[in-house]
Design brief:
The protein is of the alpha/beta class and 277 residues long. The protein has 12 helices and 10 strands. It has a 5-stranded parallel β-sheet, with helices on both faces. Helix 5 packs antiparallel against helix 6 and helix 6 runs parallel beside helix 12. The longest helix is centred in the middle third of the chain and has 21 residues. The chain is elongated and about 60 Å long.
């Protein structure tokens, strides 16, 4: 089937060697492509690519976790931008074997985001815009770092899921953002990036701020539900002092151009705690 689809004809690049049809397998990569001004060259994106709003109008090629190889080939791309994760590896390997150009990027830390933007810029003839974007993100993060410098670090728990309880550990970019925003991860070093947290570990953590990812059912309702859920642990400083926040997660969880916005939201939660001390 793949070879039949492949033989329908590959798209030809411009003489400059720049891709004319790009497919993105990840929402954060989609955001980078749009930010580099490549809107008209984006042939298709992953189902979960919902920002900027124009991304919703693009053809879809399956989810981030399960890209559809045939749907990608049907777009006749001359560049597929993917993440070097196990979930996308089988698809990208198949595409490479069929002769498609694939840019696989590792983006798990903030520095890797900058490297990825640079590589995408280079592959698409947008190096200058990529450099400007990197400078802009760095400037905003540096500005935040200097503002949030404090001698005492507030203990923050970023909750990935409440039941069973799982949080962002220290080997994540969320940990980098917590520290940058003037906090300290309430979870000690763990092997897993997003470890399960036992009740004993939770009570011993002395967490002062709990931040929960919104699930898309309405922030106000989710905030009330979170407060009710955490009320059973009245001895936790975060619960006692009403420092539980449900926030839109995409700007933080997606390592992309909106990362400073997410970091600023995080910093506001931490600053609110410091003001109330």
């Amino acid at each position: 089937t793949f070879s039949r689809l492949q033989n329908q004809g590959r798209n030809v690049k411009h003489q400059s060697g720049q891709p004319n049809k790009i497919v993105s397998l990840s929402p954060n990569l989609t955001e980078i492509l749009f930010e580099l001004g490549l809107d008209e060259k984006i042939a298709a994106v992953s189902n979960d690519s919902d920002y900027p709003p124009q991304a919703a109008k693009k053809n879809k090629i399956g989810t981030f976790w399960q890209p559809n190889t045939e749907a990608i080939i049907a777009c006749k791309p001359d560049l597929v931008v993917a993440e070097s994760l196990e979930q996308q590896k089988a698809v990208t390997e198949s595409l490479k074997k069929l002769g498609y150009e694939v840019l696989s990027l590792k983006i798990e830390k903030i520095e890797e985001l900058f490297a990825a933007i640079e590589k995408i810029g280079s592959a698409t003839g947008r190096s200058q815009r990529a450099d400007e974007l990197i400078k802009n993100i760095k400037a905003r993060l540096d500005g935040l770092r200097s503002k949030s410098h404090s001698s005492r670090k507030v203990r923050v728990l970023w909750v990935i899921q409440a039941e069973p309880l799982r949080a962002a550990g220290r080997k994540t970019h969320i940990n980098e953002l917590i520290e940058l925003a003037g906090g300290e991860n309430a979870i000690s070093d763990t092997i897993q990036q997003y470890p399960p947290i036992s009740t004993e570990e939770l009570l011993a953590s002395g967490v002062e701020i709990i931040i929960q990812s919104a699930m898309g059912t309405g922030i106000e309702n989710e905030q009330k539900a979170a407060e009710a859920f955490w009320s059973k642990w009245q001895n936790l400083p975060a619960v006692k002092n009403h420092r539980i926040y449900v926030i839109e997660p995409d700007t933080i969880l997606r390592l992309g151009p909106r990362l400073p916005q997410g970091a600023e939201t995080l910093a506001r939660c931490i600053a609110a705690k410091q003001e109330n001390q």
